[in-house]
């Protein structure tokens, strides 16, 4: 894992390339505290901050090919580099290092830009082909590693994080009102849009090629599912489960490749427990585990974490996160997310990453991705119930089904059948709506926009983020099963845009820690897309096939427990012990009016309500965290008030 930065084109005469690259990589030094380097050539420059994990002694970057024609700056890991290296040696290639970085250079010599199709890994890299004067930017299939770019004074600048781009002289920063609307509706901007106007994100599984004054951005891989009317597979559940187990074991095995120790997170849920159990079998008596607990009972999973520690016999470190801990580190969290967020969930992971780093670890395995690819989230069950209710509106089962959806939200169980039907939008959304599965979430989140200022509303002029999302769906999307449609939305939007970005890469790399995700091995993702829907969501039982395939790895209490999504206290984190000074300042009427993004009277009422610890629901919690994080982001990253930028939007 590392941080990269660079440019393609002529940089300003006021600054030489070496100095510029040094400034850019210094802004992201936390991503690679071990080594750094720059490479400047005619028409391009590459910079690198290194977190040394593979090829400790000889993996310095930027790295040139033996011929000197190619140079690469690379962030991430290619987990199948051993097999690729052997194949390339058989074809006559000679290697000078033991790093996975050099494998990409040789593979590019053989295949050109198509080399990315051979890579099994999490990566973002820039490769400069001097002979062709071609710059190639690439990002991994699932969007694990970030890559941002912008055009400035005729040159392309790119980096792992936006704060590096802000070191380019003359770079102005403005809020993109449409991206802000997307965050307050969808939780994330729709790539390539970012919250910074004029700065873009290279979408997952995409290449950018700059050659002969032409720029081309193209996908090299696409998440796909079978048609809903396709002939059903005749494979047995045990056969499917056996293949799943084999793929997951191999995905974990190659993610243990490193020249440094690899640890594992334990959340107390099925996914991280399974990954840790497989890893413990591959490296017996060596695995170190890490977990975080809460002082609030509804969020704490310590009991389940300790069950897994006892079952695996790992050396374990844990910490307890309080509401005041979240409030204390939240400004630092926003500095690393580089965008507003609607939940505090990244904050505890920031603390957990710090714990692993302090224990001397650079790499951890985690369970991210299992809920998306094997239908583990409540939203999949909810969509199935809503479809049943829309087809059978008079069914007496309706209220009972709704009450089963969220056992960890006891308030819902006390509501009337009429309230529950209205809450979940039963019968409201057409079954042919491409966003049917997510409409209740989008409506609930979009309610936070009641706090937008009149100026922001005018700038948006009726813009609808959900229409924007629906317009970019794949051409085959309508032919997929409704569960697959819902999985696509989670996997292609929320996972890279929020889960992997704000909760995983950024919180880990804030402390020079690399997260690895066996469930996001593209072989396993492609396999899961073909698993029959009834093996993933069986009745209302989530991740059925995963549970069946791994039931011997974890205690029955872990497999049988009700799904509890990872959550953290939201507005209560900032109000339980009295408002921190920075909250009073940035959510105060003067600061709100100066930023111009929100209605000062409406925010004042919200702040007063939360300050007296009145009961808050989803809307108020999301609005509080969203407004506070936006204000913190604006203070940290912009150099113009929103009132000035809205006029230019």
TrEMBL record:
Keywords: Amino-acid biosynthesis, Asparagine biosynthesis, ATP-binding, Glutamine amidotransferase, Nucleotide-binding. ATP binds at residue 292. SUPFAM superfamilies: Adenine nucleotide alpha hydrolases-like, N-terminal nucleophile aminohydrolases (Ntn hydrolases). It catalyses: L-aspartate + L-glutamine + ATP + H2O = L-asparagine + L-glutamate + AMP + diphosphate + H(+). Pathway: Amino-acid biosynthesis; L-asparagine biosynthesis; L-asparagine from L-aspartate (L-Gln route): step 1/1. Residues 2-213 form the Glutamine amidotransferase type-2 domain. Gene3D superfamilies: Glutamine Phosphoribosylpyrophosphate, subunit 1, domain 1 (3.60.20.10), HUPs (3.40.50.620). The keyword Transmembrane does not apply. The record marks 368 as: Important for beta-aspartyl-AMP intermediate formation. Its EC number is 6.3.5.4. The keyword Amino-acid biosynthesis applies. GO terms for biological process: asparagine biosynthetic process. GO terms for molecular function: asparagine synthase (glutamine-hydrolyzing) activity; ATP binding. L-glutamine binds at residue 100. The active site is at residue 2. GO terms for cellular component: cytosol. It is an enzyme of class 6 (ligase). Belongs to the asparagine synthetase family. NCBIfam families: asn_synth_AEB (TIGR01536). PANTHER family: ASPARAGINE SYNTHETASE, ASPARAGINE SYNTHETASE (GLUTAMINE-HYDROLYZING). This is asparagine synthase (glutamine-hydrolyzing). It comes from Phyllobacterium zundukense.
